[in-house]
Specification:
Strand order of the largest sheet: 1-2
Structural class: alpha+beta
Radius of gyration: 36 Å
Strand content: 15-25%
Mean pLDDT: 83
Number of strands: 2
Distance between the termini: 60 Å
């Protein structure tokens, strides 16, 4: 009898250690954490955030077009003539280019990117508000 009781206790011990006693896991959330978690899994919010990064990089790229471009060139030329004087030319050239902000294609694209960024900002606000309302 003692052997059977010991065997049953041993089996129960192995069963309990193998499968473990499952405890209920609770997560404490306040409203901010819940909204942050909801925004992290919302694909529309992720899309809007990636568009913000895209428009910021486009605006920087279009702004860089108006920065001065500096160039430096060095060239060596030699000409050997059989019955005449030989020539050797060494040239160093320096150039500076500056685009003028005149409202052309680049400035139009820059202003368009700024406008799209503003529209995207309001879309982000709308999505955030809808997620907040769904969480509440």
């Amino acid at each position: 009898m003692k052997k059977i009781a010991a065997f049953i206790i041993f089996i129960l011990f192995i069963f309990q250690s193998a499968y473990g006693v499952q405890k209920k896991r609770t997560i404490e959330l306040n409203l901010r954490k819940a909204i942050a978690k909801a925004l992290n899994v919302n694909f529309e919010w992720k899309l809007v955030k990636s568009k913000v990064k895209l428009y910021n990089s486009l605006i920087r790229e279009y702004t860089r077009e108006y920065l001065p471009k500096i160039g430096l060139g060095i060239s060596n030329e030699e000409a050997k003539v059989v019955r005449g004087p030989d020539t050797r030319n060494n040239k160093i050239t320096f150039s500076v280019e500056q685009l003028v902000y005149d409202g052309g294609k680049i400035s139009l694209a820059k202003e368009s990117a700024k406008l799209e960024k503003k529209i995207n900002f309001y879309e982000a606000k709308e999505i955030k508000m809808s997620v907040q309302l769904n969480v509440i």
